[in-house]
Amino acid sequence: xxxxxxxxxxxxxxxxxxxxxxxxxxxxxxxxxVADCGPELATQAVDAAxxxxxxxxxxxxxxxxxxxxxxxxxxxxxxDTIAATMTAEQGKPLAEARGEVxxxxxxxxxxxxxxxxxxxxxxPGAHADNRIWLLPEPVGVVAGITPWNFPVSMITRKLGPxxxxxxxxxxxxxxxxxxxxxxxxxxxVAAGLPPGVFNLVTTSRPAGFGQAVMTDxxxxxxxxxxxxxxxxxxxxxxAHDVKRLSVELGGHAPVxxxxxxxxxxxxxxxxxxxxxxxxxxxxxxxxxxxxxxxxAAFTAELVxxxxxxxxxxxxxxxxxxxxxxHVEDAVARGATVLTGGRRPEGAxxxxxxxxxxxxxxxxxxxxxETFGPVAPVLEFDDCDQVVERAxxxxxxxxxxxxxxxxxxxxxxxxxxxxxxVTVNGGPLAPPQAPFGGIKSSGYGREGGHHGVADYLEYKYxxxxxxx
Length: 467
Hints:
Mean pLDDT: 96
Radius of gyration: 23 Å
Number of strands: 23
CATH architecture of the largest domain: 3-Layer(aba) Sandwich
CATH topology of the largest domain: Aldehyde Dehydrogenase, Chain A, domain 1
Strand content: 15-25%
Number of domains: 2
Strand order of the largest sheet: 15-16-17-14-13-19-20
């Protein structure tokens, strides 16, 4: 078991007096002891970020971009090592983990280019001797809080736009996956990022970190990805000094497979989305509505894909318990397990790819986010009513549509109450696109120029020229 009692604060890797243990979900065995930082170290990290802010925001845009590109190169060069760490502590297959590291580097590269495009505006003056300009400025010190399901890409999706805008960052990774975050921080240090621009605080006591940054007036923005319950609490706490927030919360994504779609192609793509990361993604399809004319062909292919899927373990025992509870509830209410549906014997928190038929909307799988590899299939006949059924959730992150009818594509996409709609398998999270949701799935965007704009203030400058 490794001993990594360090947090990155300013120019130094500091040891914390207390540690917590990270376990491998595949075996349950301990992997490492990690620094368990209290609120005092969180405040020291804010000190370092505040001290580094003037120099970083004043740095020429192309110089900031060069450092960000160097960090992306370091991540790419270390992709195999970081992926192995991610697989050990989070459980996703090695190929998925490596792909995530490379995707994280892509997000940094995109954001680096955006440093050159932080344009202001010239507004027509109120009279001949008046000039009005809008000047983009970084919001200030940012606190980032990232989840365990994508422990590298979620970091760079926050770091990239924040650094591009000229902000400095204090980051707290999930307590389940701090080792990947430590290796990301090492890559940034190796790239030559100035001390204090990126600070890493690991802890098993997230409430203490949250209290430290939410009550510190120097922290002007918090970017959080995680549960809706925690997001709501951060929103409440932000009122004290009116912090800006970006919150990417839970999801309950519907899939709508219309009668003109190719059922086999749709099933294969739905399986890729559903079983990615063992279903542990906020964008994971959670309610799969299939027109009754396609249900047999679609379900047969989905079962084939599920039986061929190679999944890692779920993150921990509570995750397995939730998935098991959802499947058991569905069966008790009349659903049929078409494949999977039972935890295998042996070590680790594994659960097989599972397909349920005969599903109805009173079941837990249709009322709660499962966050696991369970694909519930619901049939429909009324193509207008199914949109209402898809919208019947407080969440609004992602929806999936399968149709070859252009008119239906436009109408349905406009009617769906979700921040992101993908049609016929279009990608969801490339670095140039603004990822994010509405309703109880949160607000704010990550990716593209919209994501950088979330880290900027626009100063209104009105000048009287005089005579």
